[in-house]
Queue: 3 jobs
Job 1
Amino acid sequence: MAEDDVELWPIDTDDTVQLLLKYDEEVQNPSDQCPRSIFMVPNVYRDLSPRSFTPRVVSIGPLHHQDEHLKGFEVQKATYMHNLFHNVLRPLDSTPEQILKECVTKVSDSVDQIKACYFAMQTYPDSELVKMMVTDACFILAFLYKEDIQYSSLGPVELLYTHIYHDIVLIENQIPFFVLQDIFECTFLKFHPAPSLADFIFLIQNRCNIFEGDLVMGNSCISSTHDHILGFIHKSYQHPDRNSSTPYEIVQGHSVVELERSGVRFSNRLDAEWPMAMELEFSRFLCFPLSWSKPTLKLPVLRLEDDTESIIRNLIIYEHSSQVQACVSSYMYAMDNVIDTPEDVAKLVKSKALVNY
């Protein structure tokens, strides 16, 4: 193309400046933003395991509210909510209408705070968002209180229990924890004696535990603030003596086979204060070249179930988007170092550091 054929368009500097200023105004100052702890997982991670992040049965919150394959369960959520107000809370002095009005008022007062918890959320009218929050919070509490509801508009709901627990812990499928707390205070906290919200969440925690043995949370963790249910569960994996998100150190590792050849034995441990604790135990009789004088690497017992991968991936994504300990990432990095081949896995199964369900 000849130089004379190129048509040059004049640049209006003032218009360009105004466009950039308008663009700048549309983006809030990051320093003024609340941490947005509920978001769609970036495709670079989602593509590795799409089923780890997508709810299968029930949508919680706005991010998957329009998913076609989840809309059928909306009727069932309403069934649980109806049962909560008309059966579970019936002994209370307040009428279902009075309790529901209190719930709606509480959530309405914090609607701006709710929006600030989501990143790239579809725009909903405030009334629709409040309805969604109240419905989903009531469903979660009613489901945890009595999962085996006696009647169902969709048939045998008991076949879906495991999938519902899975959906409730996904990072894309959360509501702010303070919403759950507000609804709990308007409903179950009126009982005498009143249960605690932590008692409800412990049911999810136990169903989604990736290790053998019970998870223990100190009173300070229970009483502290949480981003959402996934954040609550993450606290049960955090190291009790660390307060900040210390990055794990990247080191050269060796596989189980390599370590075993060098004289290391493998065993499991269930009595650690921290569920992910690994301990290298040295024998008192190092001078004796016998098998019982070898050092032993004691590992926590990892439960391999259908949803283990999904739970781990969601915990890791949460760690890398929030100012929390990268404890799960650190543990998985250590496991990635010792596992290179199926033979490594077989030896960990034999030592009962891995349990395959």
Job 2
Amino acid sequence: MLVPEELGEGERQHWRELRAKSPSPRNPFMEPEFTDVIGRVRPGARVAVVYEGGAAAGFLPFERGRLGQGRAVGLGVSDCQGAVLRQGLVPGAPGAPDARELLRACRLSSLAFDNVEAEQPLFLPYAAERYAAHVIDVARGYRAYEDVLRARSPKFLKTTLAKERRLGRQVGDVRFVFDERDPAALRTLMAWKSAQYRRTGRRDRFAREWITRLVHRLAETRATECSGTLSVLYAGRRPVAAHFGLRSTTVLACWFPAYDPEAAKYSPGLVLHLRMAEAAAAEGIGLLDLGRGAAEYKDSLKTGERPVYEGAVTRWGAGAALHWLGREPARRAHGFVRARPRLASVAARTLKGAGRLRGR
């Protein structure tokens, strides 16, 4: 069991090679660079190395908390989680790890996850909830994606493109930068996002120092399969929408989008995502992963969905009991509300009302 920065370059390269052979899309959250940056802002981050016949056959990044309670590395912000294992090293196969045995070796009483991929047989038996992660497929090019939108919802695409033209006429020439390096633009995005969290009654992620430091460090990360990418939509010299995410050679993981509320009538966030899809396709990136969670803009933009899972592996003991008490009641309450659209709508309005009160 190692601190992430203790991994040698040979081990990191082996991690990358194992990930390249996975049937899953190459999501940058699953690369060693993301775990390494987490390790620099979260002192409990660790990597378990799985050996087979004396050779490394896999890696499990995680964070260790009190009483041995574990969590997927970056839990709460990472949109893709799990172990990186040699193909064929599945439960029941000769030499394959068992999830609870792995916890025992890592001195963990539990290991919580909330975005495990479908191609993770080690963890799927312990899943409690299944969610849809929305995706945009641009593997056949941006024009093919536009054709999909036009066939499915012609009014949506026509209206959004019309708003983009109106933005250019009324505010200033529209300009898009796929990989903006200006630190001021990142600060603007984070300020917009913090205000959005407060306005909608949700916890401000950027009020947590480790998340702010994580984003700033990832913005400086330039690895082939995990590169911080800040995309900005300008009208004239003014930024009106921005997004920060991570990209590999084939996947753009969409993470923190926000826009200037003063430009809301032009739907700059939707325009931004269309331009991101266009730029990603031009770069050879075939998939934009919008992540799990219901949102109207995701429904409008997506071409499909991928399942992700939430749950926990537990071993008998005080740590497992604390995990259950700390997470299960809230998870079950969220599931109850989510399964009842009218109740979910009331909950959303209540959150927004609370946000408005806090903003006064």
Job 3
Amino acid sequence: MTVTAVAPATSSRSMGRLPKWALWALLVASFAVAAVVFAFANVGGDPADFNIALTCVVGMVLFLVLIYVVSSIAESRRHAMDRLMTALVCTAFVIALLPLVSLLYTVVVAGLARFDAEFFSSSMRNVVGEGGGAVHALWGTLLITLGATVISVPIGLMTSIYLVEYGQGKKLARGITFLVDVMTGIPSIVAGLFIYSVFALIMGPGTRLGIMGSLALSVLMIPVVVRGSEELLRIVPNELREAAYALGVPKWLTILKVVMPTAIAGITTSIMLAIARVIGETAPLLLTVGMVQSMNLNMFSGQMATLPVFTYMQAKYPGIPAEAFIDRAWASALALILIVMILNLLARVIAKVFAPKTGR
């Protein structure tokens, strides 16, 4: 008869491992200690002055110290170093996320004061104090960005197709790649000055039109579209091209029917990201488009209003009462952030819809 020995149950501590709840307990304790310290430092002051961001940073630093000390005692030096490195990565993520969260929180809280129906249904024509809205700036932003997209996407896509499909190893392709890399780092104000100078030579100094803003934004968009589309076209498997060539399909039709549909999801995403990158530019639009207080939907006649410039003008030159101008600036900034968020969500949906279907 064989007797099987049953090992006694052991706890996580006796096995040299911290229980899972210990990490969370140390994290909560670290944040609690940091919150208490800053609460005592703010005694007698305004509760709104409590520094949440600094509390999070100090709490994460305390957590790093505690997790290393406790793990060294309860486990081993090797486990302690592993947990410390993991905590450092998480701390870096939290510190990087804090400015974004703080920015979004500030814009949302301050922007909701004027985020109403009047703000999206009226302009600033004949408004000198409270009231008014940014419908003229909203339409101007959409039209100018649409114009920049119509100009940039065909040029960017055809350039990337040439670089990937026709220009490999050629000096012209290397020169284009170099120029695209240089254009990627051009300051936005330089793009605005370039377009303004061209139109000043043709139509005279002081010319400001909506189409000028679209051209200035397209100078910034084209290199982003080229680089994004080029990388996506390069990852299309060559086997797909060779299979089409083996069937006698010409190269241009292979690109149109095989290569582009395969990469269309990623290309769409890169285009949306390029739009989101330029839609908030202020300096080139301030030079090329200007600012008006009423609606103007004609991009080839007169100045137009845009949300970035509208936000800048409301915050830079407040009138009486100043609070009304500041509230409109925050509401305009919130509207701009929401537009960018919608564009990014739309890019994800389009990428999912147009992604190549796999399986049966």
